[in-house]
Amino acid sequence: MTDEIDIISSISEANILDYMIDLSSYRMDVLSARFLTFEVKACKHVALYASSSENKDSTKPLYEIVIGSHQNTMTVVRRRNDASLHTSSRITKQSNSQNILNCNEYRPFWISWEAGSIMVGSGNGVGENVIVSWIDQAPFSVKSLGILTLDKVVGEWKVFIPVKDNFAGYSTSCEAPGKRAVLLSLGVVSSSLLQCAAMCSQLNSCVVYNYQKQDKRCELLSVGTDPLTNVPKYLAAEWQYYSKCYDENDACFGCFF
């Protein structure tokens, strides 16, 4: 979820990247990505930022994509070269898109930035239903991506994130016992807790496992292909869920949402 902030766009806020939710913190492999698909529920003004900086340096060139701008009537693609806020430092392309967002339902969209061809579209098919497109004659490498809602709007997002396969060989339980994760089950087997952890570690598709000590039941879980913004759980006596950790244990799946 993106909270409401009193900012209209990168035109008026020099340090715009300070406010975005950086998708790299959710293990997104930004450097190898060329597009992003997502669903969002908001009344207006949802924004995405593709930056040439790895550490939210707003003085570096960035692309700003705003869907539902101008009271939910426009979609905007903008390149900003620096944080000066001078008119000469930016290029803007926009297109009419009346009522493209909805306050009460998720709407699917995609963005792509292959070889400087910046495109925004609706639906789940990348390259289809293009709303606005623009070719950057001097493209930069996108090193970070982030989301934000502008103009005092709250947004709810479901972002499909292609992640790095850099499992750290470590799993953790980040909540008190008595909770069982509910994801796509890869199977339930009888094993020790150590064997359960080993089985999940050997499967790239396994990101979480549930374990019930009393009956030695091990359930391996995957996120499947659906966009995920949370790991659903429910109270279950005797059960405990464990999450695989990545990036040298800095990011443990299910513990950073």
Automatic annotation (TrEMBL):
- Ranges for domain Farnesoic acid O-methyl transferase: 34-159
> What's one Pfam family here?
PAN_1
Instruction: Name the source's superkingdom.
Output: Eukaryota
Domain Apple intervals:
191-244
- Residue ranges annotated as coiled coil are none
Q: Which PANTHER family match?
A: AGAP008648-PA
**What protein name does the entry list?**
Farnesoic acid O-methyl transferase domain-containing protein
